[in-house]
Design goal:
Elements lengths: L1 E5 L3 H9 L5 E3 L2 H7 L3 H11 L4 E4 L5 H12 L5 E6 L2 H12 L4 E6 L2 H9 L4 E4 L1 H6 L4 H15 L4 E4 L5 H10 L3 E4 L1 H8 L2 H19 L1
Bound molecules: erythose-4-phosphate.
Amino acid sequence: MQFFLDTANLDQIREVADLGLLDGVTTNPTIMSREGGDWREQAARICELVDGPVSLEVIATNHEAMIKEAKDLVSFGPNVVVKIPMIAEGLKALRELTERGIKTNVTLVFSPAQALLAAKLGATYVSPFVGRLDGLSQSGMEAVEQMRTIFDNYDFSTKILVASVRHPLHVLESGLIGADVITLPYSTIMQLVQHPLTDSGLAAFLADWEAFQKK
Ligand code: E4P
């Protein structure tokens, strides 16, 4: 399973890359706005820094304007993946971008049927938002499981990119289901590293070793 980082923050990107865990980055308008400043400069820096796919999202909601924006976004680097919202106009844009060979990430996907539509139109990635579904008392991971079954039934090459991740259990379940990619907030990656028994175990080993040296 590939790990993408769900951020536009350069320090977080560098830190996760240094851990060797960074396979790509996803952004959205909210995430970009958090960094402030000139979004174009920020997007260019991210694309340069990341050795892997970088999702940049269109703002337009009609397909002609989405395609125009997509052409601009891909100029930021060869690793750009254009993020398109799962709306009817988005599907029209998706079809054309697929024909042009532009990589796409269909975002704001909440049902397996929506994922099927995106896969039929050749999306590179679909992004089910599991945390937001859980927040409505619907199972995000159950939706991902059904997407996995549908994609496998028909040999779709579209990758399932689990998004809106809230905690390490989402990572475990994504792995068990066989999701292709998961995009994680920086805090969740750090939570994955830690375990209290690792910390207490290491402290005990070091204390025992120190006592042994003094004998
Ligand atoms: C995915 O690409 C989105 O950027 C993201 O995961 C949305 O998550 P949220 O529900 O935390 O906003």
